[in-house]
Amino acid sequence: MNEQEIINYNRVADAIDYIKQHFREQPTLDEIAERVHLSPYHFQRLFTEWAGTSPKKFLQYTSVEHAKRLLKERQATLFETAIETGLSGPSRLHDLFISIEGMTPAAYKNGGKSLFIHYSFAESPFGNLIIASTNKGICHMAFCDDQQIALENLTRKFPDAAFSCELDLMQQHALFIFRNDQNRLHDIKLHLKGTDFQLKVWEALLKIPMGRLSTYGAIAEEIGTPTASRAVGTAIGSNPVAFLIPCHRVIQSTGNVGGYLWGSTRKTAIIGWESAKADHLYASNL
Q1: pLDDT tens, 71-107?
Q2: Distance, C-alpha 231 to centroid of its chain
Q3: How many Å apart are CA 277 and CA 280, to the nearest integer?
Q4: pTM
């Protein structure tokens, strides 16, 4: 991001954090704009360009009551509804074409020995990130503010792997997801280091449609371990691939957003952004 884009992103993040903290008071456009030191006109334009919807609508998307409604709607058919997931129309949501392959037991145990990993840094609507891939798929993606720390975190996960700073085609295909351009989306393969239980949880997360939410308990039931909500939460918290595996779509049963490895404000931003995109997609297919 250039300097102005970073400033704009930080203003949007500040506004989202303010909305998250004060949604019960239903703050006005003027109040939110004042918070980020912009005129109401300029703030409305900036926010709409970023989120694809107005601050007022975004406020609705990020309220606890809205989250509760989404959860209630999903109770009967948590991982169904073909229309929402694009099965009955031309729009192909990324939930449908991301597949997971677990690393071999040997690769899992020996710290990535014999693996050659490409990595690069990229931009997204939610800040900078690091993305890495093996010859079989994306193995790591994380939001990052410091590239050196991000690289250290990656190499710590695969201490015996060989690394090369290179943006490959596999990474480029994965990054198209942020552009919301259905015509440029490709099948995405993930090559992940995880236990059988973790892989099962991450696969369940891929079934949550964009613009919808689930809970830790619901995920536990989906994978056949209804009493393992805490273990499910731990597996979700160890998700190695930000955004592509949508752990941000899992919230507390109360409707509160809850924690997120890359920050609760970023999680709120993603939920609101996806809700706006999903609504727009649904309206365009009517």
Answers
A1: 776 543 333 433 343 333 333 333 446 788 888 777 7
A2: 20
A3: 5
A4: 0.81
